[in-house]
Specification:
The protein is an alpha/beta fold and 380 residues long. 48% of the residues lie in helices and 11% in strands. It has helices spanning 26-32, 44-47, 70-83, 94-106, 113-116, 181-200, 206-228, 233-250, 257-269, 273-288, 293-303, 310-322, 340-348, 351-354, 363-374, and strands at 15-18, 38-43, 60-64, 87-92, 118-119, 128-133, 145-149, 156-160, 168-171. The protein has 2 domains: 15-176, Rossmann fold (3-Layer(aba) Sandwich), CATH 3.40.50.1970; 181-374, Dehydroquinate synthase-like - alpha domain (Dehydroquinate synthase-like, alpha domain, Up-down Bundle). The chain starts with 14 loop residues before the first strand and ends in a 6-residue tail after the last helix. Strands 1-9-6-4-2-3 form a 6-stranded parallel sheet. It has a 3-stranded mixed sheet with strand order 5-8-7. The protein is globular and about 60 Å long. The structure holds nicotinamide-adenine-dinucleotide and fe (ii) ion.
Length: 380
Amino acid sequence: MATLDSALEMQRPPVVRFGQGALAALPDWLAAEGVTRAFVIADAFNGSRLDQLGLGAVPAFTEVMPEPDLPNLTAAVVAAEAAAPDAIIGFGGGSAMDLAKLVAVMIGSGKALSEISGPNRAPRRGVRLVQVPTTAGTGSEVGTRALITDPATMNKIATESRQMLADAAFIDPHLTASVPAFITAATGVDAMAHCVEAFTSKRAHPIIDAYAIEGTRLVGAFLPRAVRAGSDLEARAALSLAAFYGGVCLGPVNTTAGHAIAYPLGTRHKIAHGIANALIFPHVLAANRAAAPQKTALVCEALGFEGRTDTEVLEGAMGFCRGLGLDMALAAHGVPEDDLPAMAAEAHAIRRLLDWNPRDLSEADILAIYRQAYGATVPA
Ligand SMILES: NC(=O)c1ccc[n+]([C@@H]2O[C@H](COP(=O)([O-])OP(=O)(O)OC[C@H]3O[C@@H](n4cnc5c(N)ncnc54)[C@H](O)[C@@H]3O)[C@@H](O)[C@H]2O)c1
Ligand SMILES: [Fe+2]
């Protein structure tokens, strides 16, 4: 575990504009940077409201799919290259922002994703990069990482580089008011999972802990409100802040077993990233409790329940997620029971995350977690 004087490097965009009206500053920022040919990367929903960017008729790729795969990335790169832009703007959730990061370093490079994936292999970026999040979840707007699904292996390919860090992030919580309740719940749990997993990681660091526990507290206090009433702008702002804090946690510390065990649910069974995290989160929090009892108790307190025993942790975390309207049984999400062993093998191989979990989890431990989650009872 880190001590107060442990070394740590934090990277974040040089400009972060947060709050009501943040987006209105985008045109002036681009002009000051000398940008004349911005190109937008957006999902279909945000592609239908490009006017919000205040840039007039701006060229765009508006076909970002949720959890983008390699063909989706290739299509975005081809579209962007045709426009010869001097700035890339990611406008959407984590899917659009992750694609924007990769497009920004890949255009004109002639390189395939396989040549730049992993840490610090991305080519030098020749265009400006701006991120405008419209969900409150991934925190991708402040990070250096992008995740793309390889349809051949069903794995998420992580690419990470200082070159993929935005020059500016415009975080305007009002943009998230239109997110439906189910996606609000999923993305909010994702933000919370980034914070909680970083907080209990073997790599946890006091600087990051402050963001992590406050992000967890914000989700605990405000996610139920935003799910109940999407127009609750105070709750939306709190969640945009929590997502930002989660993004800060991802950089130097990152997630651990929760995300590793959740990944096969997304890649193999198309369960939305945040829902996958929610389904796994209570089980991992309880499984890790004995290895990090004080921090687990603080997480539980931040989410509004007591966590002194494994049972209290499991029931409390399940209750929190069910309170968001989520059915917590894996079985209810179309996962075939006979796939659980293959999922456990796949999750166990994600060493870049599992090696930092506070407790060593064997493949059998992970299978036990899937089995426990599989039959988790539905809300009363
Ligand atoms: N880079 C990172 O560090 C990081 C961290 C976590 C997750 N991710 C990745 O991010 C992706 C998930 O991102 P996400 O959870 O933000 O979801 P998303 O970007 O896939 O969006 C989910 C859905 O919400 C819609 N949507 C977006 N904004 C909306 C709005 N304001 N109103 C209505 N609908 C809206 C989109 O069209 C889409 O259908 C995954 O691929 C995941 O692997 C990346
Ligand atoms: Fe995540």
